């Protein structure tokens, strides 16, 4: 039988600890701890892998801990070895618990002197090298805590132990252990600890005192059977002292409840059940009532963690009443009236908006904690109350607070109730099982929040695993357990079909419940997640398309349920005072009815269809009666849903199968454009939904033959506003433009083309991509000019948002890709169009954007019928494509190819991986050129691509800067350049570029800095090409040095007259010039000249240097011997 991975990890962990223990003695001799430390880290990693499920590890602690600590307290044991083992022990305690690991620590009292010796000596250690000494302190204190629990009073060691542990009280990690040790010593040494006990029992101000008191009282209660009430006075507890202590703790708890001191509050909540027991021993009924009253008045605590602790503590109070004090009737009265019935009463409220959600949460947690007692000790009436009145409502509980929907905590607590009930091993009535099962099932599949679906599924699986066969058969149980819950869309569209197939025949009452739940919760209930309305309509559509509609309608009495609820809603709406909520609820029903009419066969019967339409017309009239555009409000989910419904109403009225088709009025124009102007387009899901609805409306309205407009005046008004929205770059409207008739589209598109943003163009192109027929019609008729596609591919618009032109290029590539078969196999006109696009596609295929690059390259491969090796990098494929196809033989193709490649390799912002890959592939490509002439031709082409100074504009400035980056990276790569490569010509081109003055200061600065960074590389390459001819090298290098010196001196002298920004630019150019100069001097090993440069600066900070020596240029020029030396 295969072992669980965690079980194998435990075996590995045990083996590693055994080996560690056996070999540690050898390490202590030679002090070589590196390998040992590595082993400890491996063990720690294994231990921490159990954090999600420590139970398997906990079962093996009885083996692991003794092996780990074997001979640990030997006096000769190396301290580093002890720290390593202590670190392992700490991690074991962290993952399981200190209580679990402490069970297997030795209780040998003869080890006390060794433990105390280590604590006193190591506690005062100030050696900096012992950085992890606290691990050892932790283990020593844990061991001391275990030893003092042995049956000895330790009166002779009392003072010594107290003094030793007090030295560690500043470390919060040790507080719990220290308090446990004190409590043991106080309990065993009443006389010696009299003063300390009186302090913690009379006025425990500090959290440390409260925790000590908690453990001290716990010891008293555990030993209560062997202690008479009279003997409690020997432990300094009397009726009077208990009253004072209880009063103090309650006051302190009340103060902490209103503060942020959650840690103190948690300790106090642990103390109260113990005080309750002790007051019960003293028969101090007033104190008992005070404690119960305190709990009942603090259920509304705002801290979630505290509410869990309150619920758990209150459960202990109820247990004490039943078990120790035998006040069963009192406990049951509190549980029934103050908890169960109060909770049920709260959830019966018509509106949940005013319910204290924290109070409700605590009540539900107490029910979950007490559910076993409720099931076993109370009558089934109260279990039915929980299953029929509490669980169904709390599992759908919601509160709308500002912009968020609250209620997940309530649902989670309800799932906790169901889970606890399933694990209670009680005899649960079948009606209770049915109710819990069905509510968990619907919540696990259809709740909006994944975390709630997950917790409901856990409770459902627990219920089916323990009680499933009482209500279902085994195959059905397995089908339900296997239902996926991750995707909410899948649940509504696919799981609903599975549920129908499971329940429809065998368990029709369960299927009836599911249909009713969808109606009552998502449509007619107060579900604030309006997406659930759409999903519910989607589920009915899915059902109608996949099952026998007639049987579906009949089996669940679908239409009767729906009509009954609509009638009730309309009747209640006539007297409703909340007009806003009435409008929203009307919108939900309208949406559902329209979807059922237009997309399903549920209303296929004529009489049924007429009822649907009658209800719908009345609801639409009521819905339109409230002008949602009258007052300006923030666009929230409710408003967006209402907008959706309005557009759905338009579509419903336009539907050809609706006999009483209504005309589009002036008011409808107002509504339509109010909606499209309000839609937040940044949310892709919202945009997608409204984009689709708007296109449906525009598609109908654009039909000039069957006009839907009330009259020509309305039509003229509509299209005038429509064109205005296009001009304003309304993305929703722009996206709908291709839905117009071809000639109307072309007219508006080219009229507004110059005003369209890149985002708008991209949306228009995307819509054309989705409509292949429309695109083909536009192309063949010439209504979409062939040059427009070329302009799209060449859009390099740059704004503050960056390269927004990429949106257009990407959309254009997708458009061409979708219609490539049309363009490649069409008429001569189509082939002419594609041939025009090839140069741009070649350039785009080599640009930096990875996805766009791949898309364009795939298109090129289809055009040239080329096969690609996807196992190779995209850059390798591109360069191979360059060699194998017609690119290198076509000047236009070739130039566009290298323009794109330069943009990739010269990109200012790119990943190291992408730059390295593109550079390595280029070097491989260059080195594979078979002749020197090919290399020279390639180098010359790459230089020609850089714009000349006379060609430089604002538009091509970015490409020029990228080109300079490209060449800098090539120079840095160490490529061997052809002897004939005209470096002087390159210098001349760069020299002219750095003289250009353009309007963009930042662009001019980047251009000049790019040129200056290339100057040293030109010197090195020129020297490399002409290594045997110093007469050529020296003049060329000195020319560049002189130019750099001129730049340095010129910029320095103009600093005083320039603006702040100009000064910054001057400073940066000066700094770059100096850096380039120093790089040249270093490359030619001119160390003396370097010293001259340094001495010519006022300070060592080169970036702020100003030349003062007029003779400097002659002193640092290159000499012949410098070239010869190299």
Automatic annotation (TrEMBL):
GO biological process entries: microtubule cytoskeleton organization; post-chaperonin tubulin folding pathway; tubulin complex assembly
Pfam families: ARM_TBCD, ARM_TBCD_2nd
Source species, domain of life: Eukaryota
UniProt GO MF annotations: beta-tubulin binding; GTPase activator activity
Domain Tubulin-folding cofactor D ARM repeats: 283-469
InterPro entries per the UniProt record, alphabetical: ARM_TBCD_2nd (IPR058033), TBCD (IPR033162)
Name of this protein: Tubulin-folding cofactor D ARM repeats domain-containing protein
Natural source organism: Naumovozyma dairenensis (strain ATCC 10597 / BCRC 20456 / CBS 421 / NBRC 0211 / NRRL Y-12639)
Source taxonomy: Eukaryota, Fungi, Dikarya, Ascomycota, Saccharomycotina
Gene (name only): NDAI0E03790
